[in-house]
Amino acid sequence: MSINYEELVQLALFSRQRAYAPYSNFKVGAYLLDANDECYYGCNIENASYSATICAERGAFMQAVSVGTRKFKAICIVGGTNEITDFCYPCGVCLQFMSEFCDKDFEIVLFNGKEIRVHTLGELLPYVFDKEQLK
Ligand code: THU
Questions:
Q1: 103 alpha carbon – ligand 1 mean position (Å)
Q2: pLDDT tens digit string along 91-116?
Q3: Is the pLDDT of residue 132 over 80?
Q4: Residue 129 and residue 76: Cα distance in Å, rounded?
Q5: Ligand 1 atom 3: residue of nearest CA
Q6: Among residues 6, 57, 100, 115, which one is catalytic?
Q7: Band of the pLDDT at 61, cuts 50, 70, 90?
Q8: Which atom of ligand 1 is least distant from the CA of 59?
């Protein structure tokens, strides 16, 4: 089944409503689609220590892996302080986290309030430290 990107964006925007970002005020929503079209929500959850903050993307993966899912098709990410006006690219830690479970063709769907942009994990993280190197 082909991916409905518009729907992913709407659901990532919904996830974003739950963001807990009292320190940065930068609210991020993520919506993760697994290989069976099951979905998982994520939002950033900040912490007074700052360093304990968890990004929306990793929150969604934590939820999915915790219920037994390890194969994924796509994640949609939206973020900003007020209205969404820019593409919110995943941070390096989140790209590394995704690379544990996702192939190079895993899709990363972004929205800037007007347009949808689709990248692959391979584009955003062309070189990666992964389990192959630990053999
Ligand atoms: N953040 C995410 O949730 N995902 C990203 O990909 C970029 C950054 C969050 C972390 C922090 O709560 C806030 O955005 C500002 O960095």
A1: 23
A2: 999 999 999 999 999 999 999 999 99
A3: yes
A4: 23
A5: 55
A6: 57
A7: very high
A8: 3
Ligand 1 atom nearest 44 alpha carbon: 3
Residue pLDDT, tens place only, 20-45:
999 999 999 999 999 999 999 999 99
Q: Which 3-state string (H, E, C) describes the chain? A: CCCCHHHHHHHHHHHHCCCECCCCCCEEEEEEEECCCCEEEEECECCCCCCCCECHHHHHHHHHHHCCCCCEEEEEEEEECCCCCCCCCCCHHHHHHHHCCCCCCCEEEEECCCCEEEEEHHHHCCCCCCHHHHC
Can you read off the two tokens belonging to residue 5? 């990107």
Nearest CA to ligand 1 atom 2: 55
Q: Is 83 a catalytic residue?
A: no
Question: Model's pTM, two decimal places?
Answer: 0.97
